[in-house]
Amino acid sequence: SQTIHQWPATLVQPVGSPLSLECTVEGTSNPNLYWYRQAAGRGLQLLFYSVGIGQISSEVPQNLSASRPQDRQFILSSKKLLLSDSGFYLCAWSVNSNEKLFFGSGTQLSVL
Amino acid sequence: DQQVKQNSPSLSVQEGRISILNCDYTNSMFDYFLWYKKYPAEGPTFLISISSIKDKNEDGRFTVFLNKSAKHLSLHIVPSQPGDSAVYFCAASAWEKLVFGQGTRLTINP
């Protein structure tokens, strides 16, 4: 069966520090991978998605970047965190485009 | 530009009654619609979906209705149970990604 791992579960970082969140998927090949953010009191905003290794599409201009170094690994990064980067970050995968997403358990990031 | 909108941020329903969550969309290219349920500090979980070629899909206590002419979909939960208390997101699919609404917090009162 397929599983998705996302870590850490919570993270407190000072403003200006770097960020690296990792997500891995098991039990499937060539998944579509996604990073979403849920800011306090707001919905789910798509940040990045990837349909293959090295292929990253960015949805909104921001202080973050994403990389896919391996087929089932998706990394969200920042060189210098801003206060506005605080939120609940979710990794997700799907088998094909336009199919239902399977989400990880999320990372609560607090930038202080 | 919010392409998928859930205009009710919260909804309170008595246990045993029907819960109706609404969602509107603007992009006529959306061809697949989904509902997700989310508990605090957890990732959303898939609940039910509907293709644009249908107007209704039922799964146990959950039914999703799609009105393409009005660009509106709704989720009916009947009867509502305390465990249904969560945030519900509708989502619409086009091309390679899902677009989510802002979510509606459903509270089921005993």
Question: Would you mind describing this structure in some detail?
Answer:
The complex is a heterodimer of chains A (112) and B (110). By secondary structure, chain A is mainly β. Chain A is built from no helices and 11 strands. In chain A, strands 2, 4, 5, 6, 9, 10 and 11 form a 7-stranded mixed sheet that branches. A 4-stranded antiparallel sheet of chain A has the order 1-3-8-7, with no helix packed on it. Chain B has strands at residues 4-5, 10-14, 19-25, 32-38, 45-51, 56-59, 62-67, 72-77, 86-94, 97-100, 104-109. In chain B, a hairpin with a 2-residue loop joins strand 9 and strand 10. Chain B is globular. Chain A binds chain B through residues 6, 32, 34, 36, 42-46, 49, 51, 57, 59, 88, 90, 92, 97-106, 108, and chain B through 6, 31-32, 34, 41-46, 49, 89, 91, 93-103.
Give the helix tally of chain A.
0
Mean pLDDT reading of chain A: 90
**Structural class from helices and strands of chain B?**
mainly beta
Oligomer: heterodimer
The fraction of residues assigned to DSSP E strands of chain A is over 45%
Binned, the helix content of chain A reads: under 10%
Fraction in beta strands of chain B: over 45%
Radius of gyration of chain A, rounded? 13 Å
Query: On the 0-100 scale, what is the average pLDDT of chain B?
Result: 93
**Biggest interface, residues from each chain:** A-B, 27 and 24 residues
Number of strands of chain B: 11
Summarize the biggest pleated sheet of chain A: 7 strands, mixed
Shape of chain A: globular
Q: N-to-C SSE series of chain A?
A: EEEEEEEEEEE
Poorly predicted ranges of chain A (pLDDT <50, ≥5 residues)? none
Query: How many DSSP-defined strands of chain A?
Result: 11
